[in-house]
Amino acid sequence: MQQPADLLTSHGLDALWVTKPENVRYLSGFSTPKDGLVLLHKEGALLYTDARYTEQAKEECFIPQHIARHSDVIQHARTLLEGKVVGYEADALLVNKLHQLAGLQAKKLVPTEGILEARRLIKTPEEIQLIRQAQQIADEALRQALPSLRAGVREVDLALQMEVYMRSHGAEDRAFDITVASGYRSAMPHGTASEKVIQEGELVTFDWGARYRGYYSDCTRAFPVGEISEELKNLYRHTQKALNLALEAIKPGVMTSDLDQVARGYLEEQGLAEHFVHSLGHGVGLAIHENPHLARFRPDLPQYNVPLQAGMVITIEPGLYVAGVGGVRLEELVLVTETGCEVLSHAPFAEV
């Protein structure tokens, strides 16, 4: 990462008050970042947390720590920040916490957005290895669950089986609420696992991931139970084609909106674009959804249309959803390389 002094100076700041959990972990290594914050200043960085985490912070953190009650943090930080220009993460700080920053007696409090996220766009080799490990755990969780996929099984039971596998094989947690959506529920893009019983002739969507040492994985597959309709088969095949076309188009310099259009344009040619209701993908790292955003170009949000760079980790996840019929999403986790991409997810696909 750019040196703190240079990073702060480039944004007109003397310090940055960091409260977003993924950024706290990025700057400190602290594995309970929701109960900490980092003061990034021109001489370095300092983690604030409370006495519950004294030994944990000492063991985990690669920056100095100050252990204090919440009510004493501002008082301590004032000695470093009084009369200084202090930035804060505007998209992560609650209003009541912002009011408390008045106690810093700073020269100026400046709302900021995306300063550290921009630095997290390109993953280090160490970060990539942690994401690989998270995805390997997730891949195997699906393999272990597939023999249980049959008519008469509840969606929630499959989701639980996958979560237990991931937690018992090194994952800190699931990456998000696991989706197991069958039949008509597969037309719900974020239809998390329910008590619905899976039936013959249904297509079942799995969307899941693992969190390993702070880093996330993300993958989606769809599997038929018995013989499915020709309409569902066509949805599956066109989704898979859109996925493969997008993967083939990945290389440094390609704009994120252009990559979205590769998949969306194919589905438009098939008369199916109205059923592709979300963006093509997103970045993955210390957050399950982070920059870059792979979406249609919007003139009012040009900041979200950026060129791909080697070292980015992104998802490619086209999907088609038809109410009353069902849906399918297929997702790969991808590392952008100097010459193209490397697919990090290796969960099996269905033969449809």
Q: In a nutshell, what does this entry contain?
A:
The protein is an alpha+beta fold and about 350 residues long. The chain has 10 helices and 19 strands. It comes from Deinococcus roseus.
What secondary-structure arrangement, pairings included, does this model have?
Elements: H1 4-10, E1 15-18, H2 21-28, E2 36-41, E3 44-49, H3 54-60, E4 65-67, H4 70-81, E5 85-89, H5 95-100, E6 108-112, H6 115-119, H7 125-145, H8 155-168, E7 173-174, E8 179-182, E9 202-208, E10 210-212, E11 215-216, E12 219-225, H9 230-249, H10 256-269, E13 281-283, E14 290-294, E15 313-316, E16 319-322, E17 326-329, E18 332-336, E19 341-343
Parallel strand pairs: 1-5, 3-4, 5-6
Antiparallel strand pairs: 1-2, 2-3, 7-10, 8-9, 9-12, 10-11, 13-14, 15-18, 16-17, 18-19
Helix pairs in contact: 7-8, 9-10
Protein name: Aminopeptidase
Domain Creatinase N-terminal: 6-122
Keywords: Aminopeptidase, Hydrolase, Metal-binding, Protease
CATH architectural type of the largest domain: Alpha-Beta Complex
CATH class of the largest domain: Alpha Beta
SSE-based structural type: alpha+beta
Shape: globular
Order of helices and strands: HEHEEHEHEHEHHHEEEEEEHHEEEEEEE
Order of strands, main sheet, comes to 4-3-2-1-5-6
Total number of strands: 19
- Can you count the helices? 10
Q: The CATH topology of the largest domain is what?
A: Creatine Amidinohydrolase
Roughly how much helix do the residues carry, as a percent range?
A: 25-40%
In total, how many domains does the architecture comprise?
Answer: 2
- Mean pLDDT, to the nearest integer, reads 96
Distance separating the two termini? 45 Å
